[in-house]
Amino acid sequence: MAGHSKWANIKRQKAVVDAKKGKTFTQLSRAIIVAARSGIPDPAGNFQLRTAIDKAKAAGIPNDNIERAIAKGAGTWSDGSVLEEIRYEGYGPGGVAILIEALTDNRNRTAADLRAAFSKNGGNLGETGCVSWMFAQKGVCVVQGVENEEKLLEASLEGGADSYEMTEVETGEVVTEVGNLEHLNKTLKEQGFQVTDAELRWIPDNFVEVTDTEQARSLLKLIDTLEKLDDVQNVTANFDMAENLMTASMAY
């Protein structure tokens, strides 16, 4: 998980900047719509919706917008557009596998935008199934303020976790099966840990090591370009890269 975890940390830092541009607002509002549509439109009984609402509030999205997104997901309010969840797959520079989760009301527009992003940045948009077999969807809890790693291990095992990894000083990511995410989240909180995020994430089964500076720059530019597209919700890639190379390559 090393390469992806470092990238996830950088993405969280970038999210503050992205929020000012409205990009994060759009993503989080759409996440609420999907969560409300896939379960009951009541956060008390819908963990995915409750988590999406918490993220939206943390980003400063007004309550009116949140309520409107819930109503749209529940089918009680409509602006005329119908959002569809689609997963796209492709290869970046150096053969890095890239998985994209999109939410769109026009799949032709989304596919064209993705194809252009790949072709301009040394990658190729592939067919369905070309890289998804390299990834497994898992539940991930991000825990901050970890002072005792042994206690985190014990709490993680009690919560039914598969593994955990310290990604920064006092910050860890605990991984579990998708269906166990709510239980793990609850267990960690009951044990006194500060869970700052609980999400479903595609995690690579293997990694491609990137060591070339130009290749690294092209890859990160491709991922950044994909993430800036309005219809894109999440981008996951199976690269591993030294942190100093990643940081240097961000200055493209």
Give a concise summary:
With 252 residues, the protein is an alpha+beta fold.
Question: Would you kindly provide a written description of the structure presented here, covering whatever features stand out?
Answer:
This protein has 252 residues and is α+β, with helices and mostly antiparallel strands. The protein folds into three domains: 14-74, Integrase, N-terminal zinc-binding domain (Arc Repressor Mutant, subunit A); 84-133 and 207-249, YebC, transcriptional regulation domain (Alpha-Beta Plaits, 2-Layer Sandwich), CATH 3.30.70.980; 134-204, YebC, transcriptional regulation domain (Alpha-Beta Plaits, 2-Layer Sandwich). Helix content is 46%, strand content 25%. The strands form three sheets. It has a four-stranded antiparallel beta sheet. A four-stranded antiparallel beta sheet has the order 5-6-4-7, sandwiched between helices. The chain has a two-stranded parallel sheet with strand order 8-10. It is globular, with a radius of gyration of 18 Å. The mean pLDDT is 86.
